[in-house]
From TrEMBL:
<dbReference type="InterPro" id="IPR025935">
    <property type="entry name" value="AbiH"/>
</dbReference>
<protein>
    <recommendedName>
        <fullName>Bacteriophage abortive infection AbiH</fullName>
    </recommendedName>
</protein>
<dbReference type="Pfam" id="PF14253">
    <property type="entry name" value="AbiH"/>
</dbReference>
Length: 293
């Protein structure tokens, strides 16, 4: 019999690590703020709490008007160099935007030091882990073997996979022809920005399906600190389908502003977890459920 543990960012935060998007905002707002004026979802999300999801909408017109000089028809009649120069400038500016955001996010993730973590519980031997975090907290602080941890979205010391789940990641190849064919290259470049920030969940799921479905006789599934956002639901559906008889224990955070316990409980029910097999509790009680010996 196997116990499978699904780890979300709430776990790292409960260990005292600065891994919320608010921490990312505090460190990189001055550096990246000029880029996010072109992602309208950030307007109502001043602390970047939905950072990855916000990258799914890019204001191409605003970017084009502010970041590059667009030649007039007379300019283009005079010389094709103006069109080529415009397309090149758009390409350069979008590469800078995408590169700087990705570099900042990866640098931030890699700056989190698990030595600053405070262990508050103890996992029994034999547990298997699906870790949605990039950190190695489980290995460094809880002494879990690497072979027992699946980093579904990569890890800080290797590759980091992040992004939004809007569309299918093929925006640039499916765009409708516009009334400015001479700028088609620039339009495709602009449309590709959201593609470059797309998280390929279904490809990741296909890559790791054998692992997710291969844990044997799973009798209990423990979820700790996971918000169960829409983009991650396919993973949960896969796990539920593979282990339909397992009981679920959902540990999450609740405060005056956010009731993570109730919201994630409802999400798991909507996914298909049977009400009689699901119990949701405050993550504050993990210290009593799994005390350090």
């Amino acid at each position: 019999m196997t116990t499978l543990v699904i780890i979300g960012n709430g776990f790292d935060m409960q260990n005292g690590l600065p891994t919320s998007y608010c921490h990312f905002y505090d460190k990189y707002n001055n550096q990246l703020g000029e880029y996010f004026v072109y992602f309208p979802e950030f307007f109502d999300d001043q602390k970047w709490s939905s950072f990855e999801e916000n990258l799914g909408v890019f204001d191409e017109d605003n970017f084009r008007e502010n970041e590059a000089w667009q030649p007039s028809m007379d300019d283009m009649i005079e010389s094709s160099k103006y069109v080529n120069g415009y397309n090149d400038e758009i390409s350069q500016k979008t590469d800078e935007l995408v590169g700087d955001i990705k570099s900042a996010f990866t640098t931030w993730i890699r700056s989190v030091d698990t030595k600053d973590s405070t262990r508050f519980m103890e996992f029994p031997k034999g547990f298997k882990f699906i870790n949605f975090n990039y950190t190695s907290t489980l290995q460094d602080v809880y002494f879990v073997s690497d072979e027992d941890v699946l980093h579904i979205h990569g890890e800080a010391r290797r590759d980091v996979i992040f992004g939004h789940g809007t569309g299918n990641g093929s925006q640039s190849s499916s765009m409708v022809l516009n009334d400015e064919p001479w700028f088609e290259e620039a339009h495709q470049t602009l449309a590709s920005v959201t593609d470059k920030f797309h998280k390929p969940v279904h490809d990741i799921l296909d890559e790791h399906r054998a692992n997710l479905e291969g844990y044997g006789d799973v009798t209990k599934i423990i979820v700790i600190g996971h918000s169960i956002n829409d983009i991650d639901i396919p993973y949960f559906e896969c796990i539920l389908s593979a282990y339909p008889n397992a009981v679920w224990r959902n540990w999450n955070h609740k405060d005056e502003e956010n009731d993570g316990i109730s919201s994630t409980h409802e999400k798991l029910l909507n996914i298909g977890v049977h009400v009689d097999k699901l119990y949701s509790l405050s993550s504050k009680n993990l210290v009593r459920a799994y005390p350090i010996s």
